[in-house]
Design goal:
With 142 residues, the protein is of the alpha+beta class. It is 44% helix and 20% strand. The chain has one domain: CBS-domain (Roll), CATH 3.10.580. Strands 1-2-3 form a three-stranded mixed β-sheet. Strands 4-5 form a two-stranded antiparallel ribbon. Helix 4 runs antiparallel to helix 5. The chain starts with a helix and ends with a helix.
Length: 142
């Protein structure tokens, strides 16, 4: 069974973070520049939460707040379920579905070591299915 560590090995474990007082507009520009849907909010090396596009849509735009004047710590998601590199992809799918979230922080002990998205989980599932199909085809033809 594939694990979170497989996703991190494929995509890398680097995370992009901003400080809690960063204006939302600057965080959004960084997300657009990097073509990502979430940013880690960190104070020095301490993980505080995640900022997602959904946070922006629901907590800034719909509430009429200013993107230039609102700091990311006012709208970031906190208390997200934490997973480890040893968690299975199935576990992640279950957590994401049950919690209605698209991103999960990955921790190795107390240190953030990556972020995985629902896209990462789906991609890894597809790759695992392709591998199984290739093994079965090889078995049938041998």
């Amino acid at each position: 069974m594939k694990k979170v560590s497989h996703i991190l090995a494929r995509k890398g474990n680097s995370v992009i973070n901003v400080s809690p007082d960063t204006p939302v507009i600057d965080a959004l520009k960084l997300m657009a520049e990097k073509n990502i849907g979430s940013l880690v909010i960190a104070d020095k090396d301490d993980y505080l939460g995640l900022l997602t596009e959904r946070d922006y849509a629901r907590k800034v735009i719909l509430k009429g707040k200013s993107s230039a004047e609102t700091p990311v710590n006012e709208i970031m998601s906190t208390g997200l379920p934490r997973i480890t590199p040893d968690n299975s992809i199935d576990t992640c799918m279950h957590i994401m579905s049950e919690s209605n979230i698209r991103y999960l922080p990955v921790f190795d002990h107390d240190k953030l070591c990556g972020i995985i998205s629902i896209t990462d989980v789906v991609t890894e599932t597809i790759l695992a299915q392709k591998e199984t199909i290739e093994h079965l085809q090889s078995y049938i033809h041998s």
